[in-house]
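hiii so um. not sure if this is the right channel but i have a protein structure encoded as tokens and i wanna go backwards to a sequence. like what aa goes where. can anyone help
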């Protein structure tokens, strides 16, 4: 693809109709000296031409497709993860059974945890590609902006992409914290390996952590709203007839994720999701190690009322 074609494509995909609003501003082309040219192209010719189909990713359109397709995979994960977390309302036993069922996917046909690990590897790849394509498109967009007099006009279209650029890093930081807290147990002094219910309650009982979850999940909902809207555009689905449906889909999807995910910190704070500070896994291990002492503790009423579903 020639430099001229790429420049045209990039300008078109950033047009006023990429955002949820249809309003936009007219951008003034710079004098010929600073406009994208063979000397200063928006997207310089790649030093190495990759073989097809990898070469598709070297164009702006290819990167948009990759961002949209990996976005769909990530939307699927976020939805399934939120629905899975609803087991929190059934208590620690049901949540652990759900986690166990995930590890056992595939039954006797494949070794235990292989399917789960396959999904994790796919998720990591989708996440990596999503971030890389977003980053490359941002760099290309900055180059394009620099070639317009007075920089970029802040249009409704650029509003959508600007929010993506601050909600994206918030989600990345949140994800790191989330895994470090719930999976690796770095930040939670009361972390118990293999007891997700107890770990969620122990972490989200802290007001600062609950606030962090609320802020991060609001950022996630904003990101999902703009992402779910613009992925159709990236995939070439954009017509006035279809746009109201696109908008409703984006709003509905973001709202479902927001309500589901916000309910967890809120209901832990309200003690609706609660284990009384007692981990069923820790109790079980103590019982296995010393059955007599553990049954004595139980008789004296030391077990949590909320520890069973
Ligand atoms: C308040 C909302 C959320 C709650 C209560 C929650 C809860 C959990 C729990 C209990 C685990 C399992 C930890 C373990 O035992 O290893 C987990 C894992 C995970 N969560 Fe969340 N989560 C929430 C939101 C999110 C969001 C919004 C994302 C993505 C943006 C996310 C991404 C992940 C990932 C990638 C894992 C690791 C999955 C794996 O190891 O297979 N979570 N979460």
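sure thing!! here u go:
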């Amino acid at each position: 693809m020639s430099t001229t074609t790429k420049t045209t494509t990039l300008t078109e995909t950033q047009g006023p109709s990429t955002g949820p609003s249809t309003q936009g501003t007219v951008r003034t082309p710079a004098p010929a000296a600073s406009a994208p040219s063979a000397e200063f192209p928006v997207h310089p010719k790649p030093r190495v031409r990759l073989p097809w189909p990898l070469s598709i990713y070297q164009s702006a359109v290819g990167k948009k497709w990759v961002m949209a397709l990996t976005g769909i995979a990530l939307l699927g994960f976020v939805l399934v993860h939120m629905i899975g977390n609803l087991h929190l309302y059934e208590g620690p036993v049901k949540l652990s059974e759900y986690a166990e069922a995930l590890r056992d996917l595939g039954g006797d046909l494949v070794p235990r945890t292989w399917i789960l690990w396959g999904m994790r590897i796919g998720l990591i790849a989708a996440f990596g590609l999503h971030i890389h394509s977003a980053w490359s498109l941002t760099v290309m967009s900055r180059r394009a902006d620099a070639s317009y007099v007075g920089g970029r006009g802040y249009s409704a279209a650029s509003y959508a992409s600007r929010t993506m650029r601050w909600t994206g890093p918030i989600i990345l930081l949140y994800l790191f914290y989330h895994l470090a807290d719930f999976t690796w147990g770095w930040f939670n002094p009361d972390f118990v390996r293999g007891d997700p219910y107890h770990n969620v309650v122990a972490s989200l009982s802290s007001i600062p952590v609950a606030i962090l979850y609320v802020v991060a999940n609001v950022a996630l909902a904003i990101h999902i709203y703009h992402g779910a809207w613009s992925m159709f555009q990236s995939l070439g689905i954009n017509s006035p007839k279809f746009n109201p449906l696109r908008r409703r889909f984006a709003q509905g999807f973001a709202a479902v994720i927001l309500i589901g995910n916000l309910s967890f910190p809120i209901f832990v704070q309200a003690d609706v999701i609660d284990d009384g500070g007692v981990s069923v896994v820790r109790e079980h291990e103590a019982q296995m190690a010393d059955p007599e002492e553990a049954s004595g503790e139980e008789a004296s009423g030391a077990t949590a009322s909320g520890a069973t579903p």
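oh and Residues 60-307 form a domain with the 3 helical TM bundles of succinate and fumarate reductases fold (CATH 1.20.1300).
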